[in-house]
Amino acid sequence: MVALVSFVLLGIAVVRVAISLARFHAVQQGIPLVQVGQSATSVIASFGRPNYREGTCSMEYSPPSNCAREYVYAHPLTPMKNEYYVVWFS
Question: What is the tens place of the pLDDT at every residue in 39-54?
Fold first, then answer.
């Protein structure tokens, strides 16, 4: 019984990681297509809600001076793989 439960939990973890990696790959492919002036709604429609941070601009990512809000998409294996994509809104 323990082996069966462990196998099911491992399967769920593998599926979740695979989904997260696929979602991040979509962000990687689409981020160059983000246009200046694009609305937050259209960014969320393209990539989904940010998986790392959403809110006021933090100095952590060196935002532009007129930044009012940021969406941060992080690699699913962060902190082992530090890869972030940030979209700023003014």
Answer: 999 999 988 899 888 9
